[in-house]
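User: Hey, quick favor. My workstation is busy. Could you predict this chain's structure for me?
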Amino acid sequence: MDRGAARGRSKRGPSEPGPAPTRASLHEAALAYLGRGAATADSVKKTLERRIGNWARRSVRAGRDAEGIASDAAKARELIEEIVGRLREVGLVNDATFAENRARRMSDAGRSRRAISAHLAQKGVDAATVREAVPHDAGAELGAALQFARRRRIGPFADEADVPTDREERRAVERKALGTLARAGFDWNVCDRVMRMSREDAEARLHERREF
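Assistant: No problem, here it is.
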């Protein structure tokens, strides 16, 4: 890039913010966001709110009338609910489907029910939908814990060379592994089952899990 041109642009000040967000431009922004992947209604709302806020800040820096900016931004924000509602009507936004698919992928990747629930809540999914989406059977939670242990190479998946021969040192390693599992959101019973399993049994359990 020509340095002189770059210096010239910097002297011209902030970039032109353009016109105030409209229903059409916000709808287009929402579709572009959804085009990158499924999202919750809350995530779409926050994306549009940020877009409006960014436009307002650029407009202030460009020296536009503050009252006019505030008025235009307020009008744009009033459009968000309508836009998101329309996206829900046509099926482009569905919190239940999003939560179900995300929960399944996260469980398969070794995330605990607690971690999944917290993630979905952070995405704006309501509590009832989270409860419906998160796997409740003990087998799924044990499978997730085993997948987590495998990824972290702890418990039955620890490298034999890293397991101390000294009894007290071995117990210390096991306590550390239990703490790692617990901090990931798995309850004590699940953590204990994982730590008591042999590598052969753990691998077999994960193989069975992949079959379903």
